[in-house]
Known about the structure:
26% of the residues lie in helices and 26% in strands. It is an alpha+beta fold. A nine-stranded antiparallel β-sheet has the order 1-8-9-10-11-17-15-14-13, covered by helices on one side. A seven-stranded antiparallel β-sheet has the order 18-27-28-29-35-31-32. Strands 2-3-4-7-12-16 form a six-stranded antiparallel β-sheet. A hairpin with a 4-residue loop joins strand 8 and strand 9 (100-106). The two termini are 26 Å apart. The relative contact order is 0.09.
Amino acid sequence: MEATEWKQRVKKYKGIFTEPPKTVPSDKVVDSPVIGNGDLGVTISRRPEQQRVWISKTDFWKAQKMYPNGSPCLLGGIDIHIPDLVNASYYCEQRLDEAKVVSTFHGSAASVYMTSWISAMENALIVELSCEGQAVSVTPDLWVQPGHGSETEYGQYGDTAWAARRFSGDDIEWPTEGVIAMRSLAGSHSFTLQPGTKQYLVAYVMTNHDGDNHLQESIRKAGLIDENVIASLRSDHEDWWSTFWAKSAIEIGDELLEKFWYGSHYIMACCSRNKKFAPGLFGNWITTDTPEWAGDYHLNYNYQAPWWGVYSSNHIELSEPYDTPLMEYMSNGRRYAEEYLGCRGLYYDVGIGPKGLPTALCNTPYENGHMFLGQKSNSALSTVNMLMRFYYTYDLEYAGFVYPFLTEVADFWEDYLTFEDGRYVIYRDAIHEVGTYTESHDDDHWDRGLEDMNPILSLALIRMLFKGLLDISRQLQLDADRHKKWTHILEHISEYPTFQREGKTIFRLTEQGYDWWPDNTLAIQHIWPAGGIGLDSDPRLLEIAKDTITVLNRWTDYNGFPTIFTAAARVGYDPETILRELRRQCSEHSFPNVFIFFGGGGIECCSGVPAAINEMLLQSHEQVIRLFPVWPKDKAARFHNLRAVGAFVVSSELSGGKVTRIELTSEKGQACRIINPWANEAFSLMEVDGEQQKEIAWQLSADIISFHTETGKSYTLRRHESN
C-alpha cells in the first residue's frame, strides 16, 4: 500500500448519527460523537437547539481513597443555545481522518453547520459555526459540574469567561483543579450568526497538573486565539493526524471490520497521549462523577487491554502513558507484599489510580480492606504490555526503564511460589474474583476462590515474565547471577491443567479449585495476552487450545471481547469463524461513535479488532514471521507497516491465494526469520536503499528463510513469476 493511499482509505470511515445520542450522561461509555487529543476529551449531545459540549480531561481526578470515591470526574462543558433550531433535523459525522465532528441541522427557516475539533497539539477546543437561510441567534453558556465535594468558581476577564472546579481538602490525597476559559470571536457573549459568514467559539482547558498558573495561563491562551491562530492550529492538527494514519494501514475487503480497525485506533489516539496520566476505563469522555468501577485502572485485565493492539499496529507512541501509574504505585505494592504476604516484590490490588492512589479500599474485614479479590496476578499481568513493547521494538532505553518493575514482580514470585515434588506450584491465587469488597457474607466460605491451586493465567504469566527477564537482562547485561533461578522456574513451573468437557480435552481454570466458569474467557487468556501458546507449540497443545475455544463458544461475552478473537487467531482457529463472529460483535455491540461496548468496560474493547486482525495477517511472537497465517487463502488482503517481534516493520500482500511481496525495515538489526510462503518456488531477497537495490545472502532451513539485517535498512522479498 502506497503511503499516500491512507487518506482516502480512512476518509470513508465515519461515525454517522441521525438522531441525538441517548446515553449521555453515562457512567460508562457514551454513545455520542467523540473527539480528543490524547488528554482533552469532548463529546457532544442533546438536541440541535441546545448542543451540549461535555469537556473532560485525563488528569481531572478526585483523589479520595475509599472506593468508589477515587475516580476521574466530569469537569464541565459549554451549552450552545440556538432557539431557531427547535424541531430541526439532526445529522452528525464523526470524521476519523480529520478527528472532527461535523453537524448539520436543518430548521424551518435556517440551516446551521457546526464543526468541532480539538487541536492535536494543544488543549484548545474550536467550534466553527455557519448558517444558510435566515440569520440565527447563538448564546453559549459555560459551566462546570458542581457537587461531589468539589468547589466551583466563575469569572470574566475581558471577553473571556472562565469556570473552575477543584477537589481539595484533608480527605484528598492530592488536589486537582480544572479550568475552562471560553470566548466568542464574534466579540460578544451572545451573537447573531449571519448567512454566508463563519463564527468561532474557542476554549482552552488546563489543570493544576499542567502547571502552577493554570488559571491565568488558560485565560491567556484562550485570549490569543484568533482566526490566524485557528488556521495555524488547524494546519498542525491535520499534519498530526495525517502522520498518525500513515503509520500503518490494512485493506482486507471488509469495510465493517476495517472501519472498527481504524476506529479503535482513533479512540486510543483521542484518549492516550498524556504521559503523566493514563486514561481510565472509559477514556477521557467522562460525563458524570460516578463512573462505574470508579473509572480507574483495573489491573485484572481492564487497564492493560486497550493497548494490546497498538504494538503490532505500529502505534507504540499511544502506549507511552501506560507505565506511569504502575511505576507510581510501586511503594504501595512493596508494602502490601511485605505486610500481607511476607514476600519481597510487588503485590497490587485490583484498582489503582494516578500518583500512587489506591482506589480499591473498602469497609470490609477481608484482605486488610483492599480489593485484591483473592488474586495474586495483577502485577504480573501488568508486565504483559511492557514485554510486548520490548519485543516489538527492542528499545533498550525503554527496557532499562521498566526493568526495575519487572525484577520486583519476579522477586514476588520467587518468594510466593512453592517448590514441591520437582515443580513450582501456586497456592491461594484466585482465578476469578472473590467478593472481598462486601462487608459480610452469608457463610464462612467467602474464600473458596483462595483454595485455587495453579490458576492457568498465572502459570502463563510466570512463563512470560521470566523468559522476558532473561532476554532483557542479557540485552542490558544485568543480573547474570539471577539467571540460574529464573531458568529453574521456567523449566519447572507446573504444566497447564486440563480436563474433559463435552467429550474434549480442554484447559482447566485451575489444577485444584474451579474447573469451569459460565462466562468470561480466563480459560484462554494464557494464550492471549500471556503468549503461552502459538503456532510453533506442541500440536497436542494447539489441539487442546482450539477445542477449548470451541467448547467455550464465548464470542459474545461480558469481559471476553479483548481476548477470545486474538487467542483464536494465535492458535490457528478457523479464520472464517473468527471473521464472522468478529463482524457480528461489531454490528451488534457498537455505538455510532465506533466504540465497541460490552458491560465490563470501555476502552478495553479498542484492542479487540486490531489485535485479532493483525494476528490473522502477521504473526511473529515466536521470533519467526508468518504472513497471513490465519487468513482465508481465497480472500485478498494487504497491510502496510505492521510491527513484528524483533523490531521489524512489515508490509505484505496476499492476492490470488499467493503472497506476492514482503517488504520490511529492520529498526535494530536483529536476525530475521520468515516462514517461506513460496515452497518450491523461486524468490529474491533485496536490500533496498532508495532507488538502489542489491541482492543479499539468505539461508533456507525447515521452510524458514533466515538472513542478517542492519539497523535502519529495508529489505524486499518477491516471488519470481513463473513463465
